[in-house]
Design a protein that fits this description.
The structure holds 2 protein chains of 2 kinds. By secondary structure, chain A is α+β, with helices and mostly antiparallel strands. Chain A is about 40% helix and about 10% strand. Chain B is globular, with a radius of gyration of 19 Å. Classes of the chains: A alpha+beta, B alpha/beta.
Chain lengths: ~350, ~280
């Protein structure tokens, strides 16, 4: 009568086998290739790289395949791999002003040096299911696209144009001697430095940050944002090895950057000027970069003398709960056995009920 | 396992964790922040315990892993296999044979001995968390030894329910100084923490904290003179080995209210059944 939880080992092996089978699906359907995922599910790859915190399209595609398309699981796979890699250098800050641009829009100036470049955006599509895109017809749409114009000229950033007039707060990059915080090496501490906060937000769950950013627009910590500039394109990563004494390019990345420009009436210490919120993500990740910038600005309250009153302005609340690998793990650990604690609770509740006269004494 | 270091973590990371452990041992009950790594198992599955174990395990260790007191629950099996694969050390189910025991939610019934290390998996390390959600605040409260809020909570339980209504993760005071969460062990196990001859290490991976109770350190469960700390008792004895001293799991055997009570510590139960009566 007593069925013990024996045979855990065999059960686990069988579960792995079933998972592999489910992953493959119907074997009469062709197996998906990593190149297909990389090319045709590129935005999923971008999200997994951003929140997985590693720029490697092939590994991200592999993670998505292994995770059966569950992007949070894919992010977790990539993170668990990333943690085994040595950190051999800290790069120079990337220079997004020198970006080779594919898309660049500003919502605050009608025209500006470098112009507005729409690029590959969903923005003005009508969200009508395109039945012509069904199996095997994808090439038709691709054929009709005109080759994109790519500018190799540096296009000045909108925030820098405002900066020249002193209308927006100046941001000085800390010198090379200042070490960059890295929350994958050091635990989060409060108050968090801005670099640690931005790292946390870049790795943070897009859905969570989207809701938080949205809440600031609806009055929960309103910060009067304008999309100063969003740019998407390729930047070079440079490393300056000590033994060389100058920087060399080691890689190029595609990134999306968002600079929010926020109204600020000034304080006793600062004159009225615009303030900034910053967002950066790997690949094409415009929504992520935008909400990151909104939440970054919301979390600058302490520094700007704003009283934190809303969730998005609460540093501990946001930074402790933004990581979907942590959140997903802890929520799902409720599936693990808790019978010992539950037994203790049963004893307690039975005792409490007996004392109230509503149950037998255990 | 090829391609990975002994016990999975690289030596630099192990050193960082060992430094945190040494600090934790030097300040019993104090939560030491550490650079917790992302592990190949999910947060909440014991990533903190696994990192602590990986940092202290050596080739001569004999490892035992339990979850809910049992060696054969799926997560215990999975973690034991992880270390068997990545270290090749001997594993055991016997508490008395183990040099290193990783546990979730229980302390073995078999008394621990000198030289043994017990590693606890901790979900939420902060004992004051349900009373104060902010880490910046709770750290201050520990620094100032400001624990009145916890005593008020226990007192409120007594006025409402006539007893402290906490049955697991029952707060303790370590070495007369820090209030500590013993990880969600049932309060039944709390007395085993006091002056334990074994080294007790607590790892919280997601929350990035390590704390410790060194051997023979005083660990007192919080209580009041007129409401002393008590532990759970059962009317029943274990249905398999007849033990009246061990923590019992309740198993529902039919849909007519039938219950069987058995030891949660599977090794303890097996040893007792092997012994001639």
């Amino acid at each position: 009568m007593y069925v013990a939880v024996k045979g855990g080992e065999r059960a686990i092996e069988e579960a792995h086998r079933l998972l592999a089978e489910a992953r493959r699906g119907d074997p009469s359907v062709a197996e998906i290739t990593l190149a297909q995922i990389e090319q045709q599910l590129a935005l999923a790859v971008d999200r997994v790289m951003t929140e997985g915190s590693i720029y490697d399209r092939e590994l991200a595609a592999l993670a998505i395949k292994q995770a059966r398309g569950d992007l949070l699981e894919a992010i977790f796979l990539l993170r668990a791999y990333r943690t085994t890699l040595p950190r051999f250098a800290v790069s120079e800050p990337i220079d997004t002003a020198a970006m080779v641009i594919r898309r660049r829009v500003s919502a605050i100036f009608k025209d500006l040096p470098g112009g507005q470049i729409l690029g590959p955006t969903f923005d003005y599509t009508h969200r009508l299911l395109d039945f012509d895109l069904g199996d095997g017809n994808g090439h038709r749409a691709a054929e009709s696209a005109e080759p994109a114009e790519i500018s190799f000229e540096p296009i000045p950033r909108v925030a820098d144009l405002l900066d020249r007039e002193g209308l927006i707060e100046t941001e000085e990059a800390p010198g090379a001697a200042t070490p960059v915080d890295d929350l994958t090496r050091e635990p989060l501490r409060f108050p968090a430095s801005r670099d640690m906060r931005l790292q946390n937000l870049a790795r943070g769950d897009e859905g969570f940050l989207l809701a938080l950013g949205y809440s600031t627009q609806r009055g929960y910590g309103r910060n009067h944002p304008f999309a100063g500039e969003i740019r998407l394109g390729e930047v070079e990563v440079e490393v300056a090895p000590a033994e060389l004494g100058f920087a060399i390019a080691v890689a190029s990345l595609e990134v999306t950057e968002c600079q929010m420009v926020n109204q600020f009436k000034g304080s006793a210490a600062a004159p009225p000027q615009f303030t900034r919120g910053y967002g950066l993500a790997f690949g094409e990740a415009e929504r992520k970069a935008m909400v990151m910038a909104l939440v970054d600005r919301a979390l600058r309250g302490r520094e700007l003398g704003e009283e934190p009153q809303s969730p998005a302005q609460d540093e501990e609340f946001v930074l402790y709960h933004s990581d979907n690998v942590e959140a997903s793990g802890f929520v799902q650990h409720l599936k693990l056995p808790h019978y010992v604690d539950f037994q203790s609770e049963l004893v307690l509740v039975r005792n409490l009920r007996a004392e109230r006269g509503v149950g037998p004494r255990p | 396992m090829s391609g990975y270091n002994f016990a999975y973590l690289d030596e630099q990371t192990k050193r960082m964790i060992r430094r945190a452990i040494l600090k934790a041992v030097a300040i019993p009950g104090y939560q030491v922040p550490f650079g917790s790594r992302e592990m190949p198992l999910s947060y909440g599955w014991g990533t903190g315990g696994v990192q602590v174990t990986a940092s202290v395990i050596g080739p001569d260790d004999v490892l035992k892993v339990i979850d809910q007191g049992a060696d054969d629950t799926t997560n215990a099996v999975s973690i034991r296999r992880f270390f068997a694969r990545t270290t090749g050390v001997a594993t055991t189910r016997r508490t008395d044979e183990a040099t290193l025991i990783q546990t979730r939610h229980r302390i073995p019934e078999t008394p621990l001995r000198e030289g043994q290390i017990v590693v606890f998996q901790v979900p939420i390390p902060e004992p004051l968390r349900w009373l104060e959600p902010r880490e910046a605040e709770t750290r201050k409260m520990h620094a100032l030894e400001e624990y009145g809020i916890m005593h008020v909570r226990l007192y409120e339980d007594i006025t409402l329910h006539g007893r402290v209504a906490t049955s697991y993760d029952y707060p303790v005071r370590v070495n007369g100084r820090y209030v500590m969460r013993p990880s969600p062990i049932p309060k039944f196990d709390n007395p085993k923490l006091d002056r334990s001859p074994a080294l007790l290490l607590f790892g919280a991976g997601r929350e990035k904290r390590i704390y410790a109770v060194p051997p023979y350190t005083s660990v007192r469960s919080l209580d009041f003179e007129d409401h002393p700390f008590t532990i759970e008792t059962w009317e029943q004895a274990c249905g398999l080995c007849g033990s009246r001293e061990s923590f019992l799991d309740e198993i529902i055997v039919d849909d007519k209210g039938g219950r069987l009570f058995v030891c949660s510590d599977t090794d303890h139960c097996e040893r007792r059944r092997e012994r001639p009566r």
